[in-house]
Amino acid sequence: MAGRAPGPAVAAAAIRPGAAAYDPAMLEARAHHQLKALLAGEGARRWPHHLTLSRLVARSLRRADHTLVRLAPGTDPSWWISLLVPLVLGETRLALVVGDGLRQRLLQVEWPRLRGVGLALSCWEGPDAPAEARLWLLNHRELLEAWRNDRLGDRQLVIPEAETLETALREALAVRITPADWDRLRRALPAAEESLLSLHGRLGRRLLRHPRTPHGLVALADDDEAPLRHLLALLKPLPDPWKAWLEAAGGGWSSWAHVDADQLGWQLHRQPLEPLAELEGLLQGRGAVLAGELAIPGGGGEVAPGAAIAGLGLTPQVVVELGDPPLADPLPLYAPLRQPLPNSPHYAEHLLDHSRRLVLAQGGLTVVLIDDPALRRGLASGLAAEFGSRVAEECTAPESNGVLCCRWSWWLENQARLPLPCQVVVALLPIASLEDPLTAARVARLRQQGRGWFR
Description:
Layout: E1 9-10, H1 27-42, H2 50-63, E2 66-71, H3 80-89, E3 94-97, H4 100-116, E4 123-125, E5 135-138, H5 140-148, E6 156-159, H6 165-173, E7 175-177, H7 179-188, H8 193-209, E8 217-219, H9 222-234, H10 242-247, E9 253-260, E10 265-272, E11 288-292, E12 318-322, H11 347-360, E13 366-369, H12 373-387, E14 391-393, E15 403-406, H13 408-414, E16 423-426, H14 437-448
Parallel strand pairs: 2-11, 2-12, 3-5, 3-6, 4-5, 6-11, 13-15, 13-16, 14-15
Antiparallel strand pairs: 1-4, 7-10, 8-9, 9-10
Helix pairs in contact: 1-2, 1-3, 2-3, 3-4, 7-8, 8-9, 11-12
């Protein structure tokens, strides 16, 4: 169970021998008892909501309803075990949808914990699973394929990363066209080779003439793609991923190119603006448990419970907030007065000066969060001139008194493997830039619909 085997595979053996006959009405009590015994045996400091979450999940599985659990941001990942115990003890056919990071934790950490106390479950992996498989472990792309091909059947869904569901589905639905895909298309359709070469050259000249952007992204309008789309509509059959690219049409999709001006190369990209709309009705008629670090209403104009994922057919009968107790001591916050604007030529010097002072005042790890690559590299160089090898950029093994400069996304992905910092310097808020074609397209669509585009 240390990793994922290629293709469909059974990951573990059956439930513990000698178990009593399954009684759905007793699932909550059995899950409560088993989890309590497991946590007592481990003797570690416990997350305060383990038993509550376990009973909520067991109740949702028994009733086949929709349950939405909001966890406090930064909740320790140990909460996973309280989700898994009722899945093991029940007999409901389930599909567990996780990303790669959570899959790794499941197989390498949580599964051995369950097997160590005599709880094990047959877990099927891969793009397809037999009807008798109790638990089907899927990533988001496999979920899309299973739903489109009507392979989910009546399985209930368990989605433990609800806060990343929209982003993960957008990535799963994304279509990318590389130079190798153009070659594959020409070989598959030699009669259209001359037309394809002409369209490729015309599109390439338009992209390479475009002024350079910081990330090499160039938005594409419908008129830019129309000639290629019209030609492909006449050609059958199309090799992958051209068929998916042709089907990804309409105002609900955004197109752009990633241009490497130095190598005179480019790739086409398409992603949906509202990926949840592509799976409209996924949860209708089936039970579902969604848990994640979702915004809590009333904390600054956030959306109502479940509104962000309502397109899937979510109608939560139970919405529960499992937050952490308030901090005994407030966190100190330092915000310099009269700061220059981030696009000011003086901001880099201002940021370096204040970051240097903050590092000098602390003896532990300092994390500096900044997405702008040029500003981040400049700041790291300036701090390295002062503090030497203590300064690192996106390193998973920083020194105990080091300075770690990184992107927000990198920090969110790797913070569980890093030591706890003594201070966090927010150099730039992670507000999406309108220079990103996907962000610009999403803003334009929200404006057309009269919705709050800034939030």
